[in-house]
Amino acid sequence: MSFAKRHKFALQLIAFLAVMLPSIGLFYSATARAGGVTWLLVGVVAGGMVIAVWAS
Amino acid sequence: MRIVVGMSGASGAIYGIRLLEALKDVFSWILALSPILLVLILMIGARWSAARAGAAGWFLALGVAVLRFGAGLDLIAFAQAKAVLLTLDVLYIIWTALLLFEVANEAGAVNSIGEALPRLTTDRAMQALIMGWAFGSFLQGVGGFGVPIAVIAPLMIGLGFAPVDAVVIPSIGHAWSVTFGSLASSFQALLATTHLPGSELAPAAAILLGLTGLGCGAMCAHVAGGWSAVRRVIAPILAIGFAMSAVQYLLAVVGVWNIAGFGSGMIGLLASFLLVRWYRTDRASPLTHHAPRTGPNAQDIALALSGYVVLVVITVLVQLVPPVHDFFNQVVLKIQFPQVRTSLGFVTQAEAGRPISVFGHAGAILLYTSVIAYAIYARAGRYKSGAKRRIVTATLKGVIGSSLGIAAMVGTASIMAHAGMTDLLARGLAGSVGAAFQFVSPFIGALGAFMTGSNTNSNVVFAVLQMRTAQLLSISVPLILAAQTTGGAIGSVLSPAKVVVGAGTAGLAGSEGLVMRRMIVYGGLLVLLTGIVTFGAAYVIR
User: Fold this and answer.
1) Is B411's CB within 8 Å of A19's CB?
2) Contact B408 A42 (CB under 8 A)
3) Residue B338, Cβ neighbours under 10 Å: how many?
4) Nearest C-alpha of chain A: how many angstroms from B159?
């Protein structure tokens, strides 16, 4: 059994948190026009989506 | 006679420019549609889960929004932040609805009700109505997530129904109850994505779903015994159907739509119980089945239903008694989003994100109910050791995949809306389908649910598109959104994901095609009838 299948629940949980939590920060970083932080947070959300594709 | 074919140099150039513009428009329209198409192809063709396909769709939407529609970093950031608020609004209900179901299920409440029902009658068609339609709607009201099929199909096989019929009957039977079922999570998604008040959308949705409910009842009887069975039990179909539809309508219209599906299912069970006492079809019908003579007593049934009675009491108190309502709705999460604009000039006006009342939300009400129901069942000695851990584990494992899928799809839909992709799709649809849109509308909802396996996801992906198209064509928005969610409700029970679950519980793994063929005929007919009703209603409601 592959790593992704063995740890499906944990990976999906990480993916979910990676999509949800930075999105709250995105509002504040975009409002403050903090481009670097916004890029970083969008990157974390994208990372969560990659894990979602891999683990689901 | 000489026929001149061709154009002068100047008009040819204009024609060429117009053709190029038109091709560019078509190309943009196809690109705007591509995230939806990708999710469709991945879920149906490649059998990907909603979470996986939704995440892939998110990446494509992001790419198209940035590269073709001129979305900037700030726009993407605000769209994603808004999507998280919408996701939380929907997930709050889904998580706690499943928690309440697991609390009741672990206490044996669902089994107690399921075992008691077949004892009411030995008539096959009536059993199909009571189990597949009334009990299926009740289970959808309190649980959802494929629970009606998983619980009822094995019980019906035990009663002597053929395995394919045992899957098809509860699948079709509970279809009409999906939108207001699962404590109205699909309806909540409709409100969250369109930003329209429930009071505006509830009446049309409840009426259209109620009419569909009558069709679902007739189809349950048809599966059980053909047209002769439908004719024989037409009076119970009308009586139970009217009772369920009327209660769903009343609860939805007074603002407690989170218990509209559950309440209608409860009334359906009560109506069935009363009807079989005086409506004896047994002697007239050759289609009788054995029914178990032993089962739970009245006290067991009362205890099984007690958790749901608590839900009704708390919901009515919090939603309808002003001082209680005000007390529980003091803490509201609300974010004001600024206006954003793409580099192509598409503007999303400044607006407040979806407000979430932390302690007065339908999800919070479900949470209070779950705790009280747990205390009741525990006091009655209905739990074995380790029950708490099993309830929490089953809830977490049950929600994580769907939560991820919803988060990804809501994100996709939000980016598409903010980048102007949804608006372009709506304009294209309005221009091409035109007057037939009201007929096509439920098919779009059904397609969305068929591809995602969820009425909620269909509403998230297509509700704004349907709303914008209806606005452009000056058709009643509540009517079109009612058609969207009704189509979505029917489409969700036809989805490969649900059919696989149903077939699996009935021992038909590997023979899903048999179930799918029957389901497509019944479900397709329901969507067709919904389209015809919507088409007619659009000329009455403006």
Assistant:
1) yes
2) no
3) 13
4) 37
Q: Within an 8 Å CB–CB cutoff, is residue A24 touching chain B?
A: yes
Note the pLDDT of residue B291.
Answer: 52
* A45 touching chain B per CB within 8 A: yes
What tens digit of pLDDT does each residue of B48-67 get?
Answer: 877 888 899 999 999 999 99
Provide, as residue numbers in chain A, all residues whose Cβ is less than 8 Å from the Cβ of B38: none
For residue B88, the chain A residues in CB contact (below 8 A) are 20
Distance, in Å, from the CA atom of B217 to the CA atom of B299, rounded to the nearest integer, reads 29
ipTM surpassing 0.90, yes or no? yes
User: Between chains, do B84 and A29 touch, taking CB under 8 Å as contact?
Assistant: no
Residues of B in contact with A53 (CB under 8 A): 52, 55-56
Is the CB of residue A2 less than 8 Å away from at least one CB of chain B? Answer: no
Give phi and psi for B357, each to the nearest 5.
Answer: -85, 110
Of the candidates B284, B464, B282, B303, the one whose C-alpha atom is nearest the C-alpha of residue B380 is B303
Q: Do B401 and A49 touch (CB under 8 A)?
A: no
d(CA B316, CA B322): 10
Instruction: Please check whether residue B199 is in contact with residue B251, taking contact to mean a CB–CB distance below 8 angstroms.
Output: no
Q: Answer yes or no: do A30 and B74 touch at CB < 8 A.
A: yes
pLDDT at B287 over 60: no
- The CA distance from B104 to B307, in Å, is 7
B89 in Cβ contact with B192 (< 8 Å): yes
**In this predicted structure, what is the pLDDT of residue B323?**
92
Name the strand (E) or helix (H) holding B340: strand B340-341
Q: Is the pLDDT of residue B12 over 90?
A: no
| Cα–Cα dist B140/B487, whole Å | 17
Contact status of A37 with chain B (Cβ, < 8 Å)? no
Residue of A19, A46, A28 lying closest to B337 (CA atoms):
A28
DSSP three-state, residue B357? strand
| Residue type at B434 in one-letter notation | G
Query: Do B516 and B473 form a contact (C-beta atoms < 8 A)?
Result: no
Q: What is the structure's pLDDT at B10?
A: 63
Give the separation between CA B264 and CA B229, rounded to whole angstroms.
Answer: 24
CA distance B256 to B217: 24
Contact B185, B144 (CB under 8 A): yes
Q: Taking the mean position of all CA atoms in its chain, how far away is CA B358?
A: 24
Question: B491 and B172 in contact (C-beta within 8 Å)?
Answer: no
A56 → closest Cβ in B58, B59, B401: B401
Q: From A43, which residue of chain B is nearest by alpha-carbon distance?
A: B77
